[in-house]
Specification:
Layout (H helix, E strand, L loop, with lengths): L1 E5 L12 E4 L5 E6 L6 E9 L7 E3 L16 E7 L4 E7 L2 E4 L2 H6 L3 H6 L1
Antiparallel strand pairs: 1-2, 1-5, 2-3, 3-4, 6-7, 7-8
Length: 116
């Protein structure tokens, strides 16, 4: 991830220069910091980012921002063969869940027992 500050001269247009959080190729933007307020805005989904005709300088990530897609997750997953299809069992923060119909209705299933 790169943190870049825009330094484009917009004297003929009323445009503010912001700080952008982009991927390494600068093709996608995860978030930006508004120039006047210093407030960080994160996007739910990365946006396409066009750098043509604009100037940028690298800057430090003093906001300690990490995109959700790059954040490390402690989610463990297993594929378990059921009687009709393969189900996915996940464990996040010690809580087991399954995507089978039995777990959805009862909150427990034999697939969880197989993992335990």
């Amino acid at each position: 991830m790169k943190v870049i500050q825009e330094v484009t001269d917009w004297t003929h247009y009323p445009v503010s220069n912001h700080i952008y959080f982009t991927d390494d190729s600068r093709g996608k933007m995860y978030a930006y910091v508004k120039q006047n307020t210093g407030e960080l805005f994160e996007f739910k989904v990365p946006l396409r980012f066009d750098v043509r005709g604009r100037k940028f300088t690298p800057t430090e990530n003093i906001w300690q921002f990490i995109p959700k897609s790059e954040a490390k997750s402690d989610i463990k997953t297993w594929q378990v063969q059921g009687s009709k299809e393969v189900y996915t069992v996940t464990e996040e923060e010690g809580v087991l869940q399954c995507n089978c119909p039995g777990f959805k209705f009862r909150g427990k299933c034999r697939h969880l027992e197989m993992i335990k």
